[in-house]
Write a structure and sequence with these properties.
Helices cover 32% and strands 19% of the residues. It is of the alpha/beta class. The strands form 2 sheets. It has a 7-stranded mixed β-sheet with strand order 5-4-3-6-7-9-8.
Length: 279
């Protein structure tokens, strides 16, 4: 299928904002209503500073390294599904090849922000889709070369069912990348020793974050088998170091070195896993 539009469910309609959705999409988020409301309110805020928000939660340099690593062997013009895309900022990073990317989120307001973030990006071809649930993706089967899940696992109400539905949309031998919190991070145990939480209240309240602390591999292994590659990242990244510019720059360089060495894993804040669709 050379045309991106050919893979879309014909019931989808394009609205005035350039986003595809069903006319009567509903929310399908009864089990995640508090998270849905939280995400919607953040994305709708007139004071939202996307770059500041991203830099406060992610190491942009390390996300660049992850993209370089996982996309290195992916041919030009491959079809990528970014599920739970949020603001989609990573696709503005420097990539040597151009891709066809379908961006999906269950919060419509996130897609509005994503369109603004990527407005000047002509390197890739984008389609924005508002889908209420990962268990009912509006795409043809066996079309995606790669599926990108950046901290999406903890948002899935029924992970095994959702992952099975995602697998149906993937080509044989295509790749799925899942990035989540590393709950074996020593920082978590240190904070707990002194009575602090590793994650802030909004994170623990609004979605299934506790799920990633145990049996996080289980639903993936059931659907895809064992992961074929595991990468630890953001070993030293801490947003509050940004005010100490020289220190932050030095730690950023060291962080990239740790990423390539893949050591020490106990310091990593993020863990990324590669799964191959063998069906």
């Amino acid at each position: 299928m050379d045309n991106l539009f050919e893979i879309l469910d014909p019931s989808l309609s394009l609205d005035s904002s350039g986003i595809y959705s069903f006319k009567d999409i509903g929310t399908s988020v009864s089990s995640q209503q508090s998270e849905y409301d939280f995400r919607k309110s953040v994305a709708s805020s007139p004071s939202l500073d996307v770059i500041k928000e991203i830099k406060s939660n992610y190491s942009i340099a390390i996300r660049q390294e992850l993209l370089n690593y996982f996309l290195e062997d992916l041919p030009t013009n491959s079809l990528i599904l970014d599920l739970g895309c949020g603001y989609s900022w990573q696709w503005n990073l420097t990539l040597p090849k151009s891709y066809r990317i379908i961006l999906v989120d269950f919060v419509y307001e996130n897609l509005i922000v994503a369109k603004k973030v990527l407005a000047d990006n002509t390197h890739h071809e984008f389609i924005y889709v508002h889908a209420a649930s990962s268990s009912s993706l509006p795409f043809a089967d066996k079309v995606f070369d790669l599926v990108w899940l950046a901290q999406v696992f903890q948002h899935m109400p029924n992970p095994e069912t959702d992952l099975s539905n995602i697998q149906q949309k993937m080509k044989p031998m295509s790749k799925l990348i899942s990035t989540d919190f590393n709950y074996r991070n020593v920082e978590r145990f240190i904070k707990r020793m002194f009575g602090f939480s590793y994650l802030n209240e909004s994170q623990t309240k609004n979605f299934y974050i506790r799920r990633v602390s145990y049996k996080s591999d289980y639903p993936f292994n059931i659907v895809f088998g064992d992961s074929s590659d595991i990468l630890f990242s953001e070993h030293l990244f801490q947003p509050y170091f940004k005010k100490f510019h020289v220190l932050y720059q030095a730690l950023s360089i060291l962080d990239r070195l740790f990423f390539h060495l893949q050591w020490p894993n106990s310091l990593a804040r993020q863990i990324s896993k590669l799964y191959i669709n063998n069906q």
